[in-house]
AEC family transporter
Amino acid sequence: MWGVLQGFTLILGIIGAGYLAARFGIVEGDQRRVLNNMAFYVATPALLFSVLHTSDPSVLLSPVILVTSTAALLAAAVFIIASRLWFKRDLASTTLGATTSGYVNSNNLGLPVAVYILGDAAYVAPLLLVQLVVFAPAILAILETTRGDAKPNRADRGGVARGGLVALGRAARNPIIVASVLGFLVALVQLPIPSIVMGPIDMLGQAAIPMVLMSFGISLRGQRALQPGSGRGAVFTASGIKVLLMPLLAWSIGTAFGLGPHEVFVATTIAALPTAQNVYNYAATYRRAETMVRDTVFLTTFASIPVIAGVAWLLGG
């Protein structure tokens, strides 16, 4: 549990540094978007390629990953249904809300949880791969369709097709999608990359997480989390689905499909991880549902601590 606390302290410390930078006027207003854009368009693609190009594609089919991925999709579906019933949102906001309900922090929190609670860092690597190769491109492709000039002209019968082609073209040029696909293909064909090429890529990738966390911290300045009128219903719904329902779904699916006790424990613990800060990076880049995503990341980061501790106590044996 000490390792988990270290992981949370690390994240909150960097978020705090971003908040203080805004508090003392080092970064003001929309200047944080420069940091966010550098993370989205430069550092994060470098990180994804660095992680994926040496990965093992076969881990995508492991039982634990199938369980956690299914739980994530079901959690996202529950948010979509709740959104349709109680707080109707546009496509981008609904997509981001569904993402916050199922997209877990498998890197900077998942790794210490895997090492100190699950006993092996390899447990989170497959989920990281699934989220980067499957989930992230799908999410970004949907967000691309919501850009203003990607909307079809209703008066034009070909508008829908042209809008879809524009969105598809943008998705194909999205640096995160491109880096993920290239990294996965390099791993698939086992193509060696010279260290002289990977050196700058690795260094840029190491800057991605601090950039995202600091941008998140800067966004907290000037607006308190969970303010009235900021969409708290969607935030509480997404947070409850993420830290309570998704672990329950993972436990139920793993038990129903006959996974061993330890595999069920691993799947449930991974599902209890909070929402990844990358989702805020996506929201800030596309300027959609930023407050909702920010507040959900903030809330789940704290709420997941007792949930993970409870899962370890009940199932860890």
About this structure: The radius of gyration is 19 Å. Residues 149-160 have pLDDT under 50 and may be disordered. DSSP finds 14 helices and no strands in the chain. Residues 290-315 form the longest helix (26 residues).
